[in-house]
Structures are given as C-alpha cells and as structure tokens.
Amino acid sequence: MSVNYDQILEAIWETIYMTGAAFGFSLLIGFPLGIFLVVTRKGHLLENESVSNVLNIVINIFRSIPFIILMVAIIPLTRLIVGTSIGTAAAIVPLVFYAGPYIARLIENSLLEVDKGVIEAAQAMGASPAQIIFRFLIPEALSSLVLALTIAVVGLIGASAMAGAIGGGGLGDLAITYGYQRFDTFIMVITVAILVLLVQGVQSFGNILSRRVRRS
C-alpha cells in the first residue's frame, strides 16, 4: 500500500507538534539551568563551586548519551508519564531529556559572551543579582540567545525524525515505515525534502529575529 498525501500532512503536523512541545518543555528546563551554570561559576554573581560542579556533571551525563539510546533507556519513565512508550506524545519525553541539557549549554555560551564590564557597571549601580540577570545579562545576550535557541529547534527537528525508529510518529516514522521497510524511494526523498525545508525555514526565521533584536 502506498502512502497518501493525508498521511504526509499528518506526519508533518506530528513533527511540528513534537518539536514545538519538546522545545517548550526543554526551554523551561534548559533556560534556568543555563543561567545557573553561568552565575554559579567562579568569580560570577552567585559563585558556588559545589552547585556549579553538580550541574556540569548532570548535564554532561545526559549530553553524552546518544538520542537513540536515551529513547530506549527512559522507556519506563515515558510510560509512567504518558502511559505509553510509542506515539507522538511518548516521543516528547525523551526529546525533552535530550534537548534540555543541550539548551542549557547553548544558553550558557551565549551569556558568557556578554562583556564583564556590563555586569560590573550594573553592580556599581547597586543592582541585585536578579536585576543584573534579567535587566542586563539576558538583554545584552538576546541576539545570541535567539541564534542559540534556533540551533536547538533545528536539533529537535532532527531528533524527532529519529524518534520514528521506535514508533514516535512524524516524518521519521513515515520514512522508516514506507521509505525504508517498503523500499519506497519517493517517500524517502519527500520526507528528506520536507525536513530540509523545515530546517531552512526555522534557521531563516531565527536569523531574521536575531538581527532585529540585536543591540546597536
């Protein structure tokens, strides 16, 4: 049986849904983690070597696990959270565990690009650590943060395609079920083309947004 266009559209929607939901949850985890990675560093606003070391170890552990292995490793947790280990909703759980630490590192790198003089000037004005973070540090790094999060979304699109290997739905599942298992070259080409277009669209939007928020 050949795939029809309704199935292709459904696969596109599932990929967008997985990517969007996973990005939202990952951002809730990764953004504060990235901030804490920066401000608890030696010589920074809330220097705390113990907290910094623990955060770095935990994040490095999750980042060192290939996504395909991570999906299988946390199947019991996925079943506990969503009640099943297959389908689009189930794929979101490992995507969050994969992207959360990755976003934390991206946020960390962007915030570290901010000139220390900005922080010192804010401290001289008597700003509290929270005020420095949200009124100086993040706004100064906003353009870089947008590009970093764009990279995270692109990575999630690729990971969502891999989720098809365990029945996660989306374009990856379509490519494996019809393109690989049934030797349908047309479907394989179509799914690859759609993924390329999605990535190009996200990257272009991120580049434009980054330029618009860049401080002169």
CATH superfamily: MetI-like
What does the average pLDDT come to? 87
The major β-sheet equals: none
Q: Give the C-level CATH assignment.
A: Mainly Alpha
CATH topology value: MetI-like fold
CATH architecture: Orthogonal Bundle
> What class, by secondary structure content?
mainly alpha
Order of helices and strands: HHHHHHHHHH
Poorly predicted runs of 5 or more residues: none
User: Which range best describes the helical content: under 10%, 10-25%, 25-40%, 40-55%, 55-70% or over 70%?
Assistant: over 70%
C-alpha-based Rg, rounded: 20 Å
The end-to-end distance, rounded to whole angstroms, is: 57 Å
Number of domains: 1
Describe this structure in words.
By secondary structure, the protein is an all-alpha fold. The protein has a single domain (5-213), classed as MetI-like (MetI-like fold, Orthogonal Bundle). It contains 10 helices and no strands.
Give me some keywords for this one.
mainly alpha; cell membrane; 216 residues; MetI-like fold; MetI-like_sf
Ordered list of secondary-structure elements with their pairings:
Layout: H1 5-39, H2 49-63, H3 67-73, H4 75-82, H5 88-112, H6 116-124, H7 129-140, H8 142-162, H9 170-180, H10 185-213
Helix pairs in contact: 1-5, 1-8, 1-9, 2-5, 4-5, 5-8, 6-7, 8-10, 9-10
